[in-house]
Amino acid sequence: MKIMKKSSTQQSGNSCLMAWIPIFATVLLGSSVSACSDGEQEDQNLTATQVCDFTLDASAAKALERMGATKIFGENYRNSGKNYRDNPESFTLARTAQMLHADTTQRNSCYVYKASTDTGHPLIHVDFFATDKYINPDPSLEKGESEDKFYPLGLYAKTHGTESATLYFKCSTQGGGKKTPYVKATLFSASGEVSPKATGQDLMTILGTMSRALAKQLGCASEAALPTQITEATQPSG
User: Fold this and answer.
1) How far apart are CA 164 and CA 188, in angstroms?
2) Could you read off the pLDDT of 166-211 as tens digits, one per residue?
3) 10 Å Cβ neighbour count for 51?
4) Using one digit for the tens of pLDDT, what is the confidence trace for 22-69?
């Protein structure tokens, strides 16, 4: 899914001709010049705290900045020229809560890009969905997998290097004719987009913070019991 860099205006040629018409008001002149900059609309750059419906707190925002080695980001559909919250594919907590029981193609996901990237690959892709079961990890099976780390967060929280993070937490929801007791949250990062300074804990800090915001939206914050601070991961021992 490629980030939309710029949107073209078909009537740019006609609009730019207006810049040659004598204009006697300074304000109007400034408006005419800025309105015909090659008929293109610049991207809306975002800070780390603005992405994903403002779900990242200070620590998660720093984690995202460290992951991307930047403080300027873009988000799919936010740069499409449409009203962000009116776009049915944009990420909002309300829409994510509503589509929690939908299938993969219909669920509401958050894609965040480095503003400077031209690869079309997201720095992070975050997704949530309801589930009636969760993985109960067996440390003895994970022994020796140095890139896998577990966190005392929710029912099950794990990162695999800086490539992915998974979190299950308690949250009773109903949809699609059934009631489910858990929510699964996932975060994936694209190879080549992540800074060498990033850590697995950065991924889990972002995912845990967004999960806490969604749990509040769903009304299951006390049930989920997700902490505000993500502690250091430990490698499994068996």
Assistant:
1) 4
2) 999 999 999 888 899 999 999 999 989 999 999 999 999 999 999 9
3) 27
4) 443 333 334 333 333 333 334 578 999 999 999 999 999 999 999 999
Token readout for 222 is 């006390």
Confidence of residue 86 (pLDDT cuts 50, 70, 90): low
What does the angle CA 38 – CA 39 – CA 41 come to, to the nearest 5 degrees?
105
Q: In the prediction, which pLDDT does 147 show?
A: 82
> Which residue reads 């750059």 in tokens?
45
Write the pLDDT tens digit of every residue in 1-30.
Answer: 444 433 333 344 444 334 433 443 333 334
Q: Show the tokens assigned to 162.
A: 């800086």
Q: What residues does 158 pair with on adjacent strands?
A: 150, 166
DSSP code, position 46: B
Residue 143 tokens, joined: 């022994």
Given a contact cutoff of 8 angstroms between Cβ atoms, the answer to whether 93 and 213 are in contact is yes
- Which helix (H) or strand (E) segment holds residue 51: the answer is helix 51-54
- Ramachandran assignment for 225, one of left (phi > 0), alpha (psi -120 to 50 degrees), beta (any other): left
Answer yes or no: are the C-beta atoms of 89 and 79 closer than 8 Å: no
CA angle 151, 108, 130 (to 5 degrees): 55
Residue 122 to residues 95, 179, 190, 213: CA-CA distances in angstroms? 21, 32, 6, 21
Distance of CA 207 to the CA centre of its chain: 9
Q: CA-to-CA distance for 14 and 7, rounded, in angstroms?
A: 17
Structure tokens at 229: 């601070």
